Amino acid sequence: MRNAAPHMLAPEYALLKNLPRHQRKRFETALQLMHSMPGSTLAWQEVAKRSAISPYHFHRQFTRVFHETPGSYLSRLQLQWAVSMLLDSPQKKILDIALTCGFSSSQALAKALQRELQHTAKAIKAIGQSGTLDELRSVLEPLAHRVSADQAPLEIQLAENLPCRLEVLERRALRLETLPDIGFEELCEQLGEKLYSRAILTPVKLLDAPWEDCIQWFGSWCKATTESAKHKLVPAGEYLTCECYIASDMGYLAALEGMEKQAAKLGVNPDWEGLCVEQVLELDDSLSGGIVLRVEIPISRAETAPAPDNSP
């Protein structure tokens, strides 16, 4: 069942929504330029020119709306891309990642990582493969969007009142396919709209597990049948569901945390023996280039849920 509109977990949308239409349109143009060129050396002054705003007014208005200068925003965005690739694509060379994300060399990337995260590129790759959720958060949260230094990232704030609902869903099945050993963004580019008919299943008890210990199934929806080497069944039952728009790894973590908080408010617990279902409903090539993601977590109404066994 599709909700009318996804909940926005992209700070850019939240910060632009109350601007006058003509001003919002210009900033949308600027953000599209900034987000569409990860390896570009395009300066913010050129972004202002292409957005039909003088550099002086662009710098002043951008800083007022987004709570950081356009130069700082571009630098943070550049480092976000690099960290995401280090986490999701460990097979890629660090130099290639640096150049793809607009750094002049692997040394320039190393300096930026040390300055902002106190981590090396190699350490971030290791977190992507075997790190805990807390370690993952430690490299994502410093690069998240903040209104002020003493507040939580805006992605977390936007997920505080995440609109979730309880749905009773019928038994379903996936026709299993091999999940390509590539980053999520590359998967979206490779499959495009074909991704809409596919889903990823993860045991709930392994959602917090290191990536190397995680088990996942990927495939396309098909008529429910008996489980086999080619099919994975998703049991019927009650699920906590949410549809949200996310544009960063931090947005994804915020969505999971927001669902956890909503489950507590509703007085339900995750079914640790169940399967979490994640499905991309829409790919957005405008503004910040995010996705509409549907997440379904099976729930239990038992007063006390057993502690999860995180063994695969």
UniProtKB/TrEMBL annotation:
Protein name per Swiss-Prot or TrEMBL: AraC-type DNA-binding protein
Phylogenetic placement of the source organism: Bacteria, Pseudomonadati, Pseudomonadota, Gammaproteobacteria, Pseudomonadales
Gene Ontology molecular function: DNA-binding transcription factor activity; sequence-specific DNA binding
Functional note: Regulatory protein of the TOL plasmid xyl operons. XylS activates the xylXYZLTEGFJQKIH operon required for the degradation of toluene, m-xylene and p-xylene.
InterPro entries in the cross-refs: AraC_XylS_family_regulators, Homeodomain-like_sf, HTH_AraC
UniProtKB keywords: DNA-binding, Transcription, Transcription regulation
Organism of derivation: Atopomonas hussainii
Matches recorded under PROSITE patterns: HTH_ARAC_FAMILY_2
The organism's place on the tree of life at top rank: Bacteria
Residue span, HTH araC/xylS-type domain: 28-127
